[in-house]
Design a protein that fits this description.
47% helix, single chain, Beta-Lactamase, Rossmann fold, alpha+beta, 27 strands, six-stranded antiparallel β-sheet
């Protein structure tokens, strides 16, 4: 409170025009393509340099809503700045200006801070209180939800009038919206970045049989990238050999159990390993913890893992960041579990290799067994990308979060969704799918939500919707990009509230469903164009999974082709056993715009139409496949085919293939004097298909 002899100054610090101009300038940041940190710096610069305060600070809540973290300061002394960033304020334990404002959601004004009894010891410890200064601390809120605080200081006593306070709170509300929106965007971007690192690490560790050191190094480097920590090490305890292995990313030490005792704080690691529980520690007001490595850090985490009963270990991370977020901990746990699988696989491979050196016949048996086990829940592939996809599916399935499966048509998005369901704890419950592109928008709503009797014409009795029939299980919404805007809004409400209303009904029906979405469209682009709701996009893409196109994994083409040869041998009573090397080369060179679905159809066509022997040769393959492969593998001027500026890979390749098909059709017609039947025979296709392909190629009505 101000002292008795305090005289209000004649000129107000908070000038109305300046504040209104600041609000206007801040609104431009809503769409600015800059990072949150830069936006916060701009805000403080505006407050201090333009409005007239001497210094300031912005603190925001972390994901747990328990800690206020310093995000940016202005005109702080070096020791104060260091302390501000090291210590996160606990809303439950710290008693200071920031926590009071964050808890109450109301501003606090200190016109004479030095003599105000509300100033606590924590305030004095956190920052210097000027002799005659004043403080204004305002909440940053989205409606009633406090997301942080902004506090500003004046070096001299200042009188804040009610009108000035209201003006500054208006300014605070404006920047709250800007901060909230930017945090949402960056949080999703960061989650995607972490998942991409996880996917790459898992694929790397499991696609080849790495040795222990390589797995450990991959684990350390990936964990540092995911968490942003400063230090990492792995500790493995080999029970059978009574050895321990310590790797800090720079040195790799193998020794007996006494080796571990050299670490500064063994109890923290031992507790995590023995309890098989993730352990975290944070620094208190003193600033830093004496870490396991002997240095001082603000936060630590130990993530344990176990390989059956043979090896126990822990991944340790430490850093000057104030905490490890729940998302980071969850992804690190998945990473460590995959590392354990990789270790187990490496050990198993080593044992198999030893056996194979003396038992050559076992090598062939293992190879035959490997050839049979090429699928993962009917998804075919052994390439590095597909192995990465399989491991992501296994881990994602364990967590009841929304999954967005993206990929081109024919890549196996539905099979991926079914694999997630079968690997989840809902596998004994229904798996229900609906294709948004296959059902007219006027009917899609009633199909999904059901309807009450009398809701519309011909609705004579109540119908249970697909969402209700999927209760307890998994619901796949295929081609989500084709859902109309009205239904998008209604579906968003279902994701937020967890209940539905049938068409024409008022009853709220609670549902327990795990949602999986799939699309072959670029939803990011649709959001930018305004054809897909941004808020729905962020709700459905909690965990994005991308199914690679067949051309991106050419090593799987022959494997899949042989699988379908076996399938159609049984179905069509054929006896095809192999593919010639020349035919393999053609199949590998073709870009497969229709992906696995197209490859399956080609193999079926070859085995139905051609009178083939035991081997598929180039002569038995369709002409358009051979011509496209020859064209794409010949010496051609690729730059001449590229459009100006940036280009879309899929779009360009599809246009090239369409051009090749058109030229083939025209050539076949000209060689056979316009006779469609002879032209079709020349190309090895039916007359009906020739006419259909000609129409698609834009050759006009030649029927």
């Amino acid at each position: 409170m101000p002292s008795e002899n305090f005289e209000p100054k004649t000129a107000s610090l908070l000038d109305r025009n300046k504040l209104l101009q600041s609000v206007f300038r801040m609104s431009a940041l809503l769409s600015a393509p800059v990072r949150l940190e830069e936006i916060l710096k701009t805000i403080l610069d505006e407050v201090v340099d333009t409005i007239g305060f001497d210094r300031g600070i912005i603190r925001l809540f972390d994901e747990t809503k328990q800690y206020l973290q310093t995000k940016v300061v202005k005109n702080y002394e070096p020791n104060e700045e260091s302390r501000a960033f090291q210590v996160a304020l606990d809303i439950k334990e710290h008693d200071c200006i920031s926590t009071k404002v964050a808890k109450s959601g109301q501003p606090l004004v200190f016109e004479d801070a030095k003599n105000d009894p509300r100033i606590t010891e924590t305030d004095l410890w956190l920052t210097k209180i000027y002799g005659d200064g004043s403080i204004f601390c305002a909440p940053l809120k989205i409606e009633a939800d406090v997301i942080g605080i902004i506090a500003v200081w004046c070096r001299r006593k200042t009188k804040f009038y009610p009108e000035e306070v209201n003006l500054f709170l208006t300014f605070a509300s404006q920047i709250s919206i800007i901060i909230h929106n930017k945090r949402l965007l960056e949080a999703n971007s960061e989650k995607i970045r972490q998942l991409m690192i996880l996917q790459e690490a898992v694929a790397s560790m499991n696609s080849t049989y790495m040795n222990n050191r390589k797995i450990s190094e991959t684990l350390i480097q990936s964990a540092l990238k995911i968490s942003g920590a400063d230090k990492a090490l792995t500790y493995f305890c080999d029970v059978s050999n009574e050895q321990c292995i310590v790797n800090d990313g720079e040195s790799f030490v193998v020794g007996d159990f006494q080796t571990l005792q050299k670490l500064a704080d063994i109890e923290f690691l031992k507790t995590a390993v023995e309890a098989n529980k993730i352990m975290t520690r944070r620094a208190g007001q003193t600033g830093s913890l004496p870490s396991v490595t002997g240095f001082f850090y603000a936060a630590e985490i130990a993530v344990p893992f176990k390989i059956k009963e043979k090896i126990k270990g822990v991944l340790y991370l430490a850093g000057d960041k104030t905490f490890f977020s729940p998302d980071e901990i969850n992804i690190l746990d998945i990473l460590v579990k995959n590392a354990a699988v990789a270790y187990d696989n490496a050990l198993m491979h080593e044992q198999l290799s030893q056996e194979a050196s003396t038992l050559k016949t076992e090598v062939q048996k293992l190879k035959e067994r490997e050839d049979k086990l090429l699928g993962f829940h009917e998804i075919l592939g052994r390439s590095k990308k597909m192995q990465g996809l399989f491991h992501v599916v296994e881990e994602v399935a364990k967590h009841n979060t929304n999954v967005l499966i993206q990929g081109e048509s024919g890549t196996g998005k539905e099979l991926t969704a079914r694999a997630i369901h079968r690997h989840s704890d809902r596998s004994d419950k229904p798996f229900v799918e609906v294709n948004c592109a296959a059902i007219p928008s006027t009917l899609l709503e009633s199909e999904i939500f059901g309807y009450e009797a009398g809701a519309f014409t011909d609705a004579r009795k109540r119908k249970i919707g697909l969402l209700e029939s999927a209760d307890g299980g998994t619901f796949l919404l295929d081609e989500i990009g084709d859902m109309n805007f009205h239904l998008q809004a209604k579906f968003l409400r279902v994701l937020e509230d967890g209940y539905i209303r049938r068409v024409g009904g008022t009853e709220k029906i609670s549902i327990n469903v795990r949602f999986v979405f799939s699309t072959n469209k670029d939803l990011n682009k649709m959001v930018a164009e305004g054809t897909f709701r941004e808020d729905l996009y962020y709700r459905i893409s909690v965990v994005p999974v991308t199914v690679p196109a067949l051309r991106e994994r050419p090593e799987d083409i022959i494997l899949i082709a042989r699988y379908y040869i076996d399938e159609f041998n049984k179905k069509l009573m054929k006896k095809v056993k192999n593919i010639s090397k020349e035919a393999e080369t053609i199949l590998k060179a073709y870009p497969w715009p229709g992906n696995v679905r197209e490859l399956k159809n080609i193999i079926e066509r070859v085995m139905i139409l051609q009178n083939i022997g035991s081997t598929i040769t180039p002569e038995t393959l369709p002409a358009e496949i051979k011509s496209a492969a020859r064209y794409l593998t010949s010496d051609m001027n690729v730059s001449a085919l590229m459009p100006q500026g940036d280009y879309d890979y899929t779009d360009v390749t599809e246009k090239i293939i369409a051009g090749i098909k058109r030229k083939l059709l025209e050539f076949a017609l000209s060689e056979n004097d316009g006779n469609k039947s002879k032209a079709a025979k020349k190309l090895g296709i039916s007359r009906y298909k020739f006419i259909r392909e000609a129409k698609k190629a834009g050759l006009g009505d030649i029927s």
